[in-house]
């Protein structure tokens, strides 16, 4: 029973965090026009 209560409290806290972050919204600004490098340059085979 204690595990169930702890799980409910954890889920409620996570849900409240998601709602808070979605209410605040994303910070203002622009994305970079440069693509992100996902590999080390020059390591192509």
TrEMBL record:
- Segments carrying the region annotation (Disordered) are 25-45
Its domain of life reads Bacteria
InterPro entries in alphabetical order: SPW_0924-like
UniProt name for this protein: SPW_0924 family protein
| Species of provenance | Streptomyces rhizosphaericola
């Amino acid at each position: 029973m204690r595990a169930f209560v702890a799980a409910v409290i954890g889920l409620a806290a996570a849900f409240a965090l998601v709602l808070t972050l979605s209410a605040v919204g994303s910070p203002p600004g622009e994305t970079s026009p440069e693509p992100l490098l996902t590999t080390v340059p020059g390591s192509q085979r």
